[in-house]
Design goal:
Blueprint (H helix, E strand, L loop, with lengths): L2 H5 L2 H4 L29 E3 L14 E3 L8 H5 L2 H8 L3 E3 L11 H20 L4 E2 L22 E5 L7 H15 L3 E5 L13 E5 L1 H4 L9 H30 L15 H15 L3 H11 L6 H11 L3
Parallel strand pairs: 1-2, 2-3, 3-4, 5-6, 6-7
Helix pairs in contact: 9-10, 9-11
Length: 311
């Protein structure tokens, strides 16, 4: 291939879309495609899709995964199109934008999210934009490329212990975009709902990932905890960096209500759960070992114990 041919390739220039959002960054626009169908929203991870998947064709594909699992969709999207097209729609990919990344890389990954979403729309798929943010300076661009009043998606994975940090960006999104509905991957915070807030559509993490919690699948629960803890390590690092950079406390400077400050407090919380659920000595030891190093509060421990022991 000659140099002139290479530099004019669409996948090199990435300038196919004439409806770029206003502003200096010219983010590709993911247009609003109307109301959602009645009934619950179900998701399937991009890493679980397959050809001729009739069982899951009524679901939306999500990309709340490690980037390497969907990097090919950015590099060469066309061969992946037919497999994605069989589903009800897709949420635009959430390419990582951790605050320890250089600022231009965070911006670039937001552009990639919008570009892939716009490209899939151009090829006939229903696309719901995934919105995510970092430090306040990302608000300059992280809401670009999304139509005001449209349906959007957010992920709750890894943010529950930094509620104030998450809600700061969420409220900014609501102010700037005014979405009419928010697909929420994971349990939403109570503050996300109310008379002046958009309609929140929660999607259960465990059910989406087939973790089998309803049947007391202990291996599945362990897997969920490992995945969440690995994600939390990265998110916690971001928030610590945020605080150290002089922006104040992203989480309000305090631990989440009920979060144990030392092992004695957590042991007391375990004892309270054991008493409430009438667990025996062996079950107490098993529960203690299960949450070791997880920094769960009382409600977390209680919920986990009920799932773990099938109560």
């Amino acid at each position: 291939m000659r140099s002139q041919e290479y530099r004019n390739q669409p996948l090199f220039l990435r300038n196919q879309f004439s409806n770029a959002s206003p502003g200096v960054f010219e983010m590709p626009m993911i247009v609003d495609q109307g109301e959602l169908d009645p009934g619950p929203v179900e998701l399937i991870g991009y890493d679980h899709i397959k050809a001729e998947d009739a069982e899951n064709k009524g679901k939306y594909v999500h990309f709340f995964l490690d980037d390497y699992k969907f990097e090919a969709l950015w590099k060469d999207p066309l061969p992946r199109l037919s497999k994605l097209a069989q589903y009800k729609g897709v949420l635009s990919p959430q390419f990582s934008a951790y605050i320890e990344m250089p600022y231009p890389l965070q911006l670039y990954n937001t552009f990639r999210s919008r570009w892939v979403g716009a490209w899939l729309q151009h090829h006939g798929l229903r696309v719901i934009p995934t919105v995510y943010w970092g430090l306040p300076q990302t608000y300059w661009y992280c809401f670009d490329g999304v139509v005001e009043g449209s349906v959007v998606a957010v992920s709750m994975i890894g943010v529950r212990r930094e509620q104030d940090f998450f809600m700061q960006g969420y409220l900014e999104m609501v102010k700037r975009l005014g979405p009419r509905a928010v697909i929420c991957y994971g349990e939403p915070f109570p503050e996300m709902e109310g008379t002046r807030m958009p309609w929140v559509i929660p999607v259960d993490y465990a059910a989406t990932n087939r973790l089998g919690l309803e049947t007391g699948d202990k291996a599945a629960i362990r897997r969920m905890m490992r995945e969440e803890q690995a994600y939390l390590k990265r998110v916690s690092g971001m928030v610590v960096a945020y605080r150290q950079m002089g922006y104040g406390s992203a989480g309000g400077g305090n631990q989440r209500k009920g979060m144990p400050k030392d092992h004695r407090v957590q042991n007391k919380q375990v004892d309270d759960v054991v008493k409430k659920l009438k667990l025996n000595k062996n079950q107490r030891r098993e529960l203690h070992d299960l949450i070791h190093g997880m920094d769960y509060n009382y409600q977390d421990i209680l919920k986990l114990a009920k799932e773990w022991f099938g109560l």
